[in-house]
Design a protein that fits this description.
about 120 residues; mainly beta; seven-stranded mixed β-sheet; four-stranded antiparallel β-sheet; globular
Length: about 120
């Protein structure tokens, strides 16, 4: 089992930055792919970014603005979000799956953290 706890969400003005953290327990994240997803009101959950030993991937909508990284010593994954836009407003979820980086098929999920970007 993997337990995931997100933090770092909040309210920010357009153009601002936030850094989300996802602390994992129960397994060593170096063996897992860790992903970030988001869900805006009335919309389906969508892939944002993922990282594993096999590399990193980002959705086209956040490339050049968001960066995903991890600290294996702390068993924590980060999502640095810069140049935020109102359309980035959503609940952001951390997820984990064994194996290589992927845009889908995650087994474990956190509770989510709200990010609100005001115009």
């Amino acid at each position: 089992q993997v337990q995931l706890v997100e933090s770092g969400g909040g309210l920010v003005q357009a153009g601002g930055s936030l850094r989300l953290s996802c602390a994992a327990s129960g397994r060593i994240i170096s063996n897992y792919a860790m992903g970030w997803f988001r869900q805006a009101p009335g919309k389906e959950r969508e892939f944002v970014a993922a990282i594993s030993w096999s590399g990193t991937i980002l959705s086209d909508s956040v490339k050049g603005r968001f960066t995903i990284s991890r600290d294996t010593a702390k068993n924590t994954v980060y999502l640095q979000m810069n140049s935020l836009k109102p359309e980035d407003t959503a609940v952001y979820y951390c997820a984990a799956r064994p194996g290589a980086v992927s845009r889908a098929n995650y087994n474990y999920w956190g509770q989510g953290t709200q990010v609100t970007v005001s115009s």
